[in-house]
Write a structure and sequence with these properties.
Chain lengths: 443, 246
């Protein structure tokens, strides 16, 4: 039995006591204080501030025994002078007192409490009207299943280039690595959406822009890798024994110097005439009503085909895997999953949400595992490469090599343990059950 | 899961108080703890404000047919759950007598508890019975409270001989003085002169204390309502010694 969280309106503790027939005893009186926004609300941190207060209570029966615990949370979401208030009841069951827990739950629901699976802070920020994904790369098609595929894709691509453009300033300033990440995600989604619907556009133009998008994306890859690696170095330090913790400093210095150079290249790219010209050409192309042989196909049919093919590719690649398969083969499945995920996200509004969400949820879990596996694989290789680069010109390389070797073994172990999980999850994802869900979704 | 049984042939020696307070100490130290009240008087159950059961589940439990997990109740303290006393415990010997292997039946009852408990503390009823024998056999450590009197020592010797005669070997026995009042000469003499060959006598002892009696009023362990009292400190000391034996 797990704890449950309820969003409240006009909640009264006296009414709760009267309904449930238990006495409330306050154990902790909280104070209102600022809380950090969770990772998924990260892009909002400059605009939104959250204050939280938590009071803790016990519900006591006639023997003086606690039968259920209750935390009351009050949250203030503040932004640009406006304040939005929310309150929540968190009910914590106690073993052997399920009946009493149900009574308390009924008392909370009787006062209009609505259960939420979200964390109170996330719930409050969203209810206050702030969407972190508005600033990210997620774009959905409009709910027009009968519209021509090319028109719908064009609309998605215009919105994605707008997102990429909105991130340019942050990329140039380089105050936060997330700007470059979001910029790249918008480009990758564009490339993916465009490639998936090959037949929707004239072949020559399709090939031209596909290559341009790929090229542009590739030119930002090293800078992103370095951002990720610089962040990871802190975690690596924690993994190393105390005596080795400073031995990777040469690698850190090397990465920071490299990042500086790469950032200069990206500044050059974004300010270049070449990039400006590409955007003009791209917008121009997206503004024209040109259609390939499948451009006029209903978007629902076209999207169904894309989803079916993307899943079939995962099944095909997934079936080939066994314990001895190289990491590159698992990576293939990962790429296939990314494509399917984008397709599911883009076209979510035109399919039944129940099936679409169920498949997306499973896919998300699989992607997390595939991502971790690939990260360990790549991190290990790159660690050794960066160590080699950083060691050039050093007189005493022994400590650096030892620390690097220690971490490489550690990453290898992580990769092996993740690998097993990955293979199991791939097996589960290519099962008849998921296939049936996708079939039901696109029928 | 380790098993600590708190047991004495004699009644009224502070056995239940010890079981309750040692369980509290175990839970406070971070161990996930289950206190199992085998005594039909249900005093441990009372101390935690839990209602005793009246559903005769022990008969089924002896046969391995009862879901004991479903009977467990959370106490008001973190890491501490209780399996409340059942009125049918009074007939445990009858149930065990009809079982093929009574000692194994008790051991299997402990094994059937599936929660991730680090330790189960049994509050065993007094007297030498099939149940107490089964609990002694299942336990890793047997904690025996002794009132510092000659009669109490004699009963303790009886217990140790009983264990030897019945080949109860795998349990470590930890004796400790309980309700000790060092103002009384007889208590001082017994405590200073006591020696046991077959069991370990703990250095800490539980003093005669009004705080222990007040547990009935507060209905919680001494450590919860009077954490700095001599009694609470003593139970803490006894618990640390038992951990070393466990």
């Amino acid at each position: 039995m797990k704890k449950r969280i309820f969003a409240l309106k006009n909640f009264s503790l006296n009414a709760l006591e009267a309904f449930a027939g238990f006495t409330l005893r306050q154990n902790i009186t909280g104070v209102m204080k600022k809380v950090e926004l969770p990772d998924e609300l990260f892009p909002l941190r400059d605009r939104v501030e959250c204050l939280l207060r938590k009071d803790s209570f016990s519900l006591i029966n006639e023997d003086g025994k606690t039968v259920c615990r209750l935390n009351l949370t009050e949250i203030e979401v503040c932004s640009a002078g406006s304040v939005f208030n929310f309150s929540f009841a968190e009910l914590i069951p106690l073993k052997g007192y399920f009946g009493e827990f149900c009574i308390v739950q009924a008392a909370v629901e009787d006062q209009g409490g609505k259960e939420t699976k979200k964390l109170p802070v996330i719930y409050s920020v969203r209810k206050a009207g702030f969407r972190s994904d508005a600033g990210k790369g997620t774009v959905e098609a409009d709910k027009t299943p009968d519209a021509p595929a090319a028109d719908v894709i064009r609309n998605i691509l215009i919105r994605l280039i707008n997102i990429a453009e909105a991130k340019e300033h942050g990329v140039l300033e380089d105050t936060d690595p997330e700007f470059l990440h979001d910029f790249r995600v918008a480009l990758r989604r564009s490339r993916s959406a465009f490639s998936m619907f090959k037949g929707a556009f004239p072949p020559e133009e399709h090939e031209y822009f596909r290559q341009k998008l790929s090229h542009l994306f590739a030119r930002t890859s090293l800078a992103r890798d370095l951002d990720v690696y610089i962040k990871i170095m802190g975690q690596y330090r924690a993994v190393l024994p105390d005596s080795m913790q400073d031995d990777l400093e040469p690698v850190e210095k090397y990465l920071t110097a490299m990042k500086k150079k790469e950032h200069e290249k990206i500044v050059g790219l974004i300010n270049s005439e070449e990039y400006s010209l590409f955007k003009n050409e791209w917008r121009n192309f997206l503004g024209r009503a040109v259609y390939g042989e499948k451009g006029m196909q209903r978007v629902r049919d076209a999207a169904s085909e894309v989803i079916k093919n993307a899943y079939a590719k995962i099944v095909k690649d997934g079936r080939k895997l066994d314990n001895s398969s190289p990491a590159s083969d698992i990576h293939k499945v990962r790429i296939g999953c990314k494509k399917l995920r984008y397709a599911l996200e883009f076209f979510r509004p035109i399919f039944p949400s129940k099936q679409a969400d169920a498949v997306t949820k499973k896919l998300k879990t699989l992607q997390d595992s595939l991502g971790a596996h690939q990260d360990y694989e790549v991190q290990r290789e790159k660690l050794l490469r960066y160590t080699e680069e950083a060691a050039k010109g050093m007189k005493d390389k022994v400590n650096l090599s030892l620390a690097s070797g220690y971490l490489a073994r550690y990453l290898d172990e992580l990769k092996c343990s993740e690998r097993e999980r990955c293979l199991e999850m791939i097996d589960s994802f290519i099962s008849d059950k998921v296939r049936a869900q996708i079939k039901e979704m696109i029928k | 899961m380790k098993i600590l049984a708190v047991y004495s042939i004699k009644g009224g020696v502070g056995k239940t108080a010890a079981a309750v307070n040692l369980a509290y100490c175990a839970a406070q130290s971070g161990m996930k703890t289950l206190l199992w009240d085998f005594d039909p008087q249900a005093a441990s159950t009372f101390y935690f404000r839990v209602k005793p059961k009246l559903n005769k589940s022990m008969k089924k439990a002896v046969k391995g047919k009862s879901d004991l997990d479903a009977e467990i109740k959370a106490t008001d303290f973190d890491n501490l759950d209780i399996l409340p006393a059942d009125f049918s415990c009074r007939n445990m010997d009858l149930f065990l007598d009809s079982a093929d292997k009574p000692k194994k039946a008790v051991r299997d009852m402990f094994k059937s508890i599936s929660g991730d408990y680090d330790i189960a503390i049994a509050d065993a009823p007094p007297g030498i019975t099939l149940l107490s024998e089964g609990i002694m056999s299942a336990a890793d450590v047997l904690a025996v409270p002794l009132i510092p009197t000659t009669l109490s020592l004699r009963t303790c010797e009886m217990l140790l001989n009983f264990m030897k005669d019945n080949k109860i070997k795998d349990v470590k026995t930890a004796l400790f003085f309980s309700m000790a009042d060092r103002r009384k000469k007889i208590h001082r003499d017994v405590m200073d002169g006591a020696e046991f060959e077959k069991a370990k006598l703990l250095e800490n002892y539980v003093p005669y204390s009004a705080d222990v009696e007040k547990m009935g009023l507060h209905r919680e362990p001494v450590g919860a309502f009077s954490p700095k009292s001599k009694a609470a400190v003593s139970y803490g000391g006894i618990w640390r010694e038992i951990v070393n034996i466990l």
